[in-house]
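The instructor's notes for this session suggest beginning with a concrete chain rather than abstract definitions. Hand out the sequence below and ask the class to guess, before any prediction is shown, which regions might be ordered.
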Amino acid sequence: MQGARDLLATPASERIQHAIVGSASLFDARRGQSILKGVVLADTPEEMALSWAATVIAEWNRDGKHPVDITANPTPEQRADVEGALKTGWKLRASAVAFQNDWITYGPSFTPLFVAATNDDAAAPLNSQQLERNRFVNRVLAHEMEHVVTFPSWSQTLKPSLTDLTLAQLANKSLFAYLAGQQPVRWMEEGGTDLLTVWTGNSDRIAAATGLRAAGPERNNYEAERMGMTRLLELAGIDTDRAVDRAAAEELLQGGTLEQEPRRIAERIVAQKKIDAAHLDELTDRIVRTAPVSPYIVAVLPKKLHGPADALINTITARRFDRFERYVNALAAGTVAEARALAVEADRASASEDQAFERQFPAPRA
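After discussion, reveal the predicted structure:
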């Protein structure tokens, strides 16, 4: 990206590199094999779109399953794939950040704030706006790095994602139905990643690593996913308000592949609540089924509806995990028939909530 090359030619280049390397240094090898190949700073919508398309095409060529040679004579199908990747990148052009295919791409609504933060006078006190900006920057840097410390198979678990689909594939297909039915544990990756990022006491650690002074953790996104993960960890005996419990959360959430995360959590809940291990499989299934309404649904709604939609999602999430906790308590009490009746009722209630949400916030069709 020309913009990134220009940035690295400025006096702030050392601080830019220090912040990126510092955020990456927060994670050690014990927490999983990093799959990060590089970082892109895109400071225009065009660069965001091109970066996204380039990383998608690079993955297709690397895994050999879907090679695309745009330097030779691409087939009509390959040309359509490239155009689809560019269209997806263009749809994401305003994103603060997009993580895809072993790369972190920081978009045009993040890069200028990041550069401004690295241009601050290191010796001068920061005003409230600067501290707030740095809080956001630190959170984004750390959040995206959290995504790359789980085992590599997590990225395969999440495919196909909405952004992998072309507009043609989405035609005449309800986005709500797609998003509600795909990747039932994707929310756990996003929620766990963000919860670890904003964990009590972690903001000072992030600021020290990036060199960007900030004012506490930034918690404006992923509320429903964080809420769900917090409720699960509490049932597993991990207190998200205790800094010393963060290591146990890291081990539980990032100590293996994402697809096995529900079972790891179920095993810990079984041990914590002294539940008969014979119920481990059904408890694991219940964790998979107890998911917030997909946050990606909100992303495709008109911006004026984001606030009301998020509020309803948070309300629904609280209800779902209340039901899950009652189910767990019934298993712990040995009242298995009651637990299974609660599970049936939970599924019915969740389906009704999904339908009510779609009626109130109908997703546009492609």
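Then share the key points. The two ends are 30 Å apart (CA to CA). Confidence is low (pLDDT under 50) at residues 151-182.
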